[in-house]
Design brief:
globular; lipid metabolism; 14 strands; alpha/beta; Peroxisomal Thiolase, Chain A, domain 1; single chain; lipid biosynthesis; 13 helices; EC 2.3.1.179; ten-stranded mixed beta sheet; 415 residues; two-stranded antiparallel ribbon; acyltransferase; Thiolase-like
Length: 415
């Protein structure tokens, strides 16, 4: 029989807060983290807004030498992981390091490092490129550096599946614990791609909102006037444990990871499969894995990117899976406040979903002002809602047709 997996610690760096209480308070109060780009001069770009992490100081977590050898996305992952371990009350010197693993992904990796070193190559020649260029840039290095800085020697890997990365990482990590290969996994996603090249690429494919004069209203999932996503950055890290291990050390349990499903669209580089059929299959597999009926689910933290096709097709996918119950459950997109954190989205949104279950508060979809006939579900518009739900899903849908869903349950204390 597979082991039950529970969440005991949360660490977050986000556009709406660099610690867990601030993050959660701003989410349930509907505060947007979107504003003008400050990390580079975006004046020549069609999109000049982003959801940036503000006032991040890596030296709070790392010495200066360590920090210099990490891209921003790795700094985020290490910092959020240390916060998550502290929140869980898990002390590595009391654990068997072979039984603690790391599964942290990034959709893009160290793009800022790549851009900086490429500029050196062009302007000063190959001898001036840093010997740390490759280990700073490669997307698996978030997991690698978290393993190094924490001493975790168990299973270590990194999902790289675009915007589904964080959810794949959590789901895969839960399976590692279920099959008995680890007692604890440090899992989630991280991203830091508010850079000139990333903006140029996403602007070129017309994916991002151009509501530059109203940045706080630019991310508006499921709203008829949506015009694209808003790029965000940050990290969301969860401490997963077997229930047996968590109970043995007296850990507080936040929620349970009950199920995991994934699928591939086999359709298009960037567009979701028609009617969201790939997303529907991922949700069905998560429900089946969790042993849940559709009526058991009271909340879905949607992928909800604020793009035309995603919001319409994800709505259709929810109706396909849940039938009439789709109109009775609550759906919200926290991307309306955080922007789209790409590879970190699933990690941050899993944290929001776990807290919604524990606290009995569903975060809202802000900027929902113009109902769209194609998006006709209950999106928890504009204000948080106090309601206890026993089970929830968190969806992540990525470029390349990668779909991932995790099913979380409120922990009831039973064996």
């Amino acid at each position: 029989m597979s082991k039950r997996v529970v969440i005991t610690g949360l660490g977050v760096l986000s556009p709406v807060g660099n610690d867990l209480p601030t993050f959660w308070n701003n989410l349930i109060n509907g505060k947007s983290g979107v504003g003008p780009v400050t990390q580079f001069d975006a004046s020549d770009y069609p999109t000049r807004i982003a959801a940036e992490v503000k006032d991040f100081d890596p030296h709070k977590y790392l010495d200066r030498r360590e920090a210099r050898r990490m891209d921003r996305f790795v700094q985020f992952a290490v910092s959020a992981s240390k916060d998550a371990l502290k929140h869980a009350g898990l002390e590595m010197d009391r654990e068997d390091p072979d039984r603690v693993g790391v599964y942290i992904g990034s959709g893009i990796g160290g793009l800022k490092t790549w851009e900086d070193e490429h500029k050196k190559l062009l302007e000063k020649g190959p001898r001036r490129v840093s010997p740390f260029f490759i280990p700073m840039m490669i997307a698996n290095m978030a997991a690698g550096q978290v393993s190094i800085t924490t001493g975790a020697k168990g299973p270590s890997s990194a999902a790289i599946s675009a915007c589904a990365t964080g959810t794949h990482s959590i789901g895969d990590a839960a399976k590692i614990i279920q099959r008995g290969d680890a007692d604890v996994m440090i899992a989630g996603g991280t991203e830091a791609t508010i850079t000139p090249m990333a903006f140029a690429g996403f602007c070129a494919n017309q994916a991002m909102s151009r509501r530059n004069d109203e940045p706080e209203k630019a991310s508006r999932p499921f709203d008829r006037e949506r015009d694209g996503f808003v790029m965000g950055e940050g990290a969301g890290i969860l401490i997963l444990e077997s229930l047996e291990h968590a109970r043995a050390r007296g850990a507080e349990i936040i929620a349970e990871v009950a199920g995991y499903g994934m699928s591939g669209d086999a359709h298009h580089l960037t567009a979701p499969a028609p009617e969201g059929e790939g997303a529907a299959r991922a949700m069905k597999r998560a429900l089946n894995d969790a042993g849940l009926n559709s009526e058991d689910v009271g909340y879905i933290n949607a992928h909800g990117t604020s793009t035309d096709f995603n919001d319409k097709f994800e709505t259709m996918a929810i109706k396909t899976v849940f039938g009439d119950h789709a109109y009775k459950l609550a759906v919200s997109s926290t991307k309306s406040m955080t922007g789209h954190l790409l590879g970190a989205a699933g990690g941050v949104e899993a944290i929001a979903t776990a807290l919604a279950l524990k606290e009995g508060i569903l975060p809202p979809t802000i900027n929902y002002e113009h109902p769209d006939p194609d998006c006709d579900l209950d999106y928890v518009p504009n204000e948080a809602r106090r309601v206890k739900v026993s089970a929830a899903l968190s969806n992540s849908l990525g470029f390349g047709g990668h779909n991932a869903t995790i099913a979380l349950k409120a922990f009831d204390g039973t064996e």
